[in-house]
Amino acid sequence: MTEASKPPWQNPSLPDFWDHRFRGGVTPWDAGRVPAQLASFVRDSDRPRRVLVPGCGSGRDVRHFAEAGWDVTGLDFSAEALAAARANAGPYADRLVLGDFFAFAVDAPFEVIYERTFLCALPRRLWPDYAARVTALLAPGGLLAGFFYFADEPKGPPFGTSPAELHALLDPAFALVEDRPVADSIPLFRDRERWMVWQRRLAPAAVPPPR
């Protein structure tokens, strides 16, 4: 069965897929806590920054950024995910936006985009669009920081990548400035994810616009 022929609740490129899982409480990617390397990244930053969290899911990371004084926007196209996020975000629920990462309007570029189980949730055919979109949304010198999932299984989500594939995707517009193992992964990602920080080049190579 092709992706296009699947019913909406079986197609991860559609909100229905994620609504179905959040509604049923089937969220094995949710650690129920803020990852240690995110906490270190926020703590060690020289100042609060303007940050986007695409596919923000349950919203715990959004709240962590907000409590640290960052100008954070948590974005998700699943209404059920946003309902869970609002419950966790507490007084910061106004930082949450229902919208499509590839189409939502912004009034200024972001300084940081936080990657956490978003790229690996996207079907691989959308990865070039992801690279183009993060390039467009980040200010020159801005950071794409977070967790990247490496695996060679053909099916997903999560859809794994390889170091060579990830470099081919991001190198035209980004330079890798940090790459570390992850010590507190949940079982789903254990020994298969790395904390990485990619810096947007001041003059990125031409990339195709998002569809």
Could you please describe the fold and organization of this structure?
The chain has six helices and seven strands; from the N terminus they run H-H-E-H-E-H-E-E-H-E-H-E-E. The protein has 211 residues and is α/β, with parallel strands linked by helices. Helix 5 links the parallel strand 4 (110-115) and strand 5. Helix 1 packs across helix 4 (79-89). The longest helix is centred in the middle third of the chain and has 11 residues, at 79-89.
Unreliable parts: none
Gyration radius, in Å: 16 Å
Main β sheet profile: 7 strands, mixed
- The outline comes out as globular
Order of helices and strands: HHEHEHEEHEHEE
What fraction, in percent, of the residue positions are helical? 25-40%
Cα-to-Cα separation, first versus last residue: 24 Å
Total count of strands: 7
What is the residue-averaged pLDDT? 90
Number of helices: 6
Strand order of the main beta sheet, please?
Answer: 3-2-1-4-5-7-6
Portion of residues in beta strands equals 15-25%
- Class of secondary structure makeup: alpha/beta
